[in-house]
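thought: fold this chain, then report.
action: predict
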Amino acid sequence: MAKAKIRSLLQELCEGLYEKEGIAALALLASLSGESVFLLGPPGVAKSLIARRLKFAFKNGSAFEYLMSQFSTPDEIFGPLSISKLKDEDKYERITARYLPGASVAFLDEIWKAGPSIQNALLTILNEKIYRNGEQEIRVPLRAIIAASNELPAKGQGLEALWDRFLLRIPVKGIENIETFKAMIAGPSQAPLSDPVSPKNKITNPEYQRWKAAINCIALPDSILDLIALIKTQYTGYVSDRRWRKIVHLLRTSAFFNDRKAVDLMDCFLISHCLWSDKEEIAKTAEFVRDMVEKYGYTGGFDGDGFREELKELQSEITGATRTIQDTRGTGPTLYSNTYYRFGYEYIKQQDFHQLKEESASVRLYSRQTLSAGYLYKQGGSGFGMEVNGRSMDLQTLFTLCREARIRKSEKTFSLIADDVEYELETSGIGDKRRITKKPEAGLVKAWDARIARLSEYLKERKNLLDQYRRQDAKHLRDNLFVPPENAGVIEAHIAAAGREIDKLEVEIREIQHRYHHLEDEDVRL
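observation:
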């Protein structure tokens, strides 16, 4: 299998590459996929060293390295003009040996300073691995072009097409871990031109061609295809269709060299290196891809929110068919002594109130406000009465002490106006609220059981799919050659969370079914 060889090859290539092992792995992956890499970083962070090391991965590999400037000419990149060809055969051809068209790995520093003639020739080489030399088109042996700069291409300078050709875009920083830094400065001097790769680990051309054919046979599961489609639709930046095809081929390459027959979620983390176009997007794009993998990966098409909405609709249907709420609650005038309604401290007879026909009318008012101080209402044995200066007096006797006031009556409100002061009618609650439950008919129960069975079977399928993911992928999630193992935690957490969600939904389904199976006729006062 290819994985063991590539793992051993990477270990040798990364010797002395402090904190650049991940970048070297991605550069090797790009070369195995036939793609090119752009390294963004300041001088002195081992960008050129990575390119020089990469050539040693291939048997009889050669490297071409060039620092671009605005004065660079095509002769310096693609080779000088052949004088003999021009003189003897009248052909305009270049001598490409030992130049970029004849190299296995090319490193182009300060790539954005290249002139238009160099850029145009690079486009075809980057995309199709073809260089037009005079009248003939030659297929170049390039496995990868690694370009570098400490800046991104300037906008509006016609560099968009060249920028689009670099599939992997990787920021490169200096050594951050202080212990690693100490080891680097205290270690022996680097020998970048020495070959660290043993002959047995070098990639031969027959191997490369055989692997190239096998990579095209790597499967792309529907779950991965759906995830990629979601990333495409939700990513706000522009990514060409050509790049998406190349991205998928990169994922297949990763799966193949991890000894798998299909792309998995760990491979999908590589997408974050292929989308961003501005420095500000680097961290955001990595977080975006991570969130998409966490939210949509390994769900088997399962939508927990949508499933809960369907359960809610079912519960609503069951409630509507079996339960009603009868509410006769309301408000009405408070009746005192079975005779009077009260407005503050003012009283009128119930009979007088209900005889009012007009919005504003006069009515006889009974009030302690008309009596001298010290007169108090009391509840007497013979009914509602009043005590005046220590002497009991019934209301009929007191009528002579009362006056008339105006009552304003409308459909919903009542008020009293006496001496230009308005009082609200005192009211209290009447009626009650009842919940009436009806046992469902057998036909409804049968229909609901059928829906429950369908939903339960769907959850069972999703659960089996998660179990399949666990069995197939858990053993290799943290052993991807090109993706940091900590990313596996996102996938493992998602699988666990999805499993818990399905377990909760299964309990909810059983509870819903149990409730409607045990409903009986019932009338409860609330």
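thought: worth noting. The chain has 18 helices and 22 strands.
final: tokens above.
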